[in-house]
Amino acid sequence: MLLGDATKAKVVYYELDDNGKVVSKCVKDYTDPNTYIIDAVCTPGAAWANGGAISGTKMGLIIGAGVVGAVLINENGTDDERSISNRRPQRRDRALNTACCIAEGRSSDPVPAPPAPPPAHPAGTPAMPQIDALRRFLLPALLVLLLAAWLGGGVTQDDTPIDEWLQLLALPLLAVAAVVLLAELPDDRYRRSGIAVALLIAAVPLLQLLPMAAAGWNLPPGRGGLAADLRQAGVDAFPMRWTLSPHATEGALWSLMPALAAFFAAMALEAGHRRRLVQAIVVLVLFNVAFAFFQTGLPQGSQLRLYQDFDAGFGGLLVNPNHQATACIIGMVLAVGLAVEARGRVERGETRPHMPWWYAGLAGCLLLMVPLSTARAGMPIAFASLALVLVLTGVLRPGRIGRSRRATALALALAVMAIVGVRVAIGWVAVDQAEELRHTMAVATVVAGERQAPLGSGVGSFVQVFEQSAPPALHLRRYVNHAHNEYAQWWLEAGWPGMLALAFALAVLALCGWRIASLRIRNGHAALAAGGFVAICAVLAHSWADYPLRTITLMTTTAALAGLVLATLQDAQSREKSRRRILPMKLSPGRQRTPGHRQPP
User: Which of left, alpha, beta for 160 (phi over 0: left; psi -120 to 50: alpha)?
Assistant: First the structure.
């Protein structure tokens, strides 16, 4: 509201894009006396009038509409850019205001502004409602697949009737996730690299099913003796393929379906559904722990035991107790990530204050469950994983050690746990080399892989190839189902192509870890990404002494976490870049921060 002859004002309007950048600027001078501005804009349709009295009702209307854009009282008539220094970025489709009115004693009401056009779809948002419906389908379908995988995929056999049902259940989810990703092809390097890794892993058994020429088939030195044995048995002509066991390799290709479906579905999830996925995985781990207690309380030979022919111990739904340790570590680090994420939501008033403590308590309980699995490698991996997730989520900042009592106490506690973990690991290695055959089987698998290089014996052919090439010390009454070292078994079965796919996957994982560590904002999306990243690292670490990824349960869960980490990390990085672009706008020219001066909010 402007009154008096000496009053001179400028109304400056700015149109900003999504990133806060000025698209256009509009300036209007007002020098007429007794002019009351309800809404002003640089449009040809603006009408102005002077004089006349003003009623009390009209004055109330004027005062209520007093904040009109940026009204600047400028004595020297120059534009003041500070009018936008504290504004939030506006939507691109929000143009300048389109009506103005002059308040007089008998003037009419202000002309209403025309309706704004519907907002355009931002980048990454589908234009088709069908894609939105398919995206909403992903979370419930993925949770059903994970539940089925935990209920029936905990055995260590490579091919069972339940596995076939899980593969069929994964096909619709895989198709829907592929449609969503193709409709909105990711444009960031994280998700694109993850898609390339998944396709490369699936391509290894697929290529091994292709026929080969005799010269290529005889390239590995270990196949000459096999060909001689076949000729001695009267088999002179047989179909030559990359793999020595086409049926087993085809089964291995199909066994990847649940993991691929979970990976692509988690990558295509809506941002608001990712926390639900992490919470669901923690609930599944807790359910498995409760079922393990139920199993251990049953007498031997009880009909309620899940595995009658094998003592699963504290494995619960997982037949191998070592895999229970891996599952508890996964739940522990995910609970830490949820605690940090919940703390950020508490600060924003989006959840109850006690939620971070609930998640922290769950993490502590799952840590205590690891020794009950009797996995010797469990505690060293658990301690290392806990330290890593605390650092990546920002709970423990190395730069604050020595300056903060809490950070120093937490660092000392982690140091004690690290010392205990190292001593346990040293004792485990000594016991394993003296009493167990894990180290011997891994070495024998590496030697057998050298004889099958560079092609590999074929994914899924470990049992038959290992029996033919095993040393006399490993001629046991029972067959050896796995090498108890995933890396050695991948080397034997997949050869150089498998090692190439493994190196690519580890490079992408290292890139994600580096990106998480370099983020300034560690809560929210970054905390979920950090928890999933550490969970994947724990599974890969335990794969050096066991085979957790050979069970559909842990393979599907790890794949879902991998897709979630890639998508969540991209969102966290985008939010941080947007924050860096918006923060400089809060400081206008001439009002920059100086030492000892604090800007008002």
Answer: beta
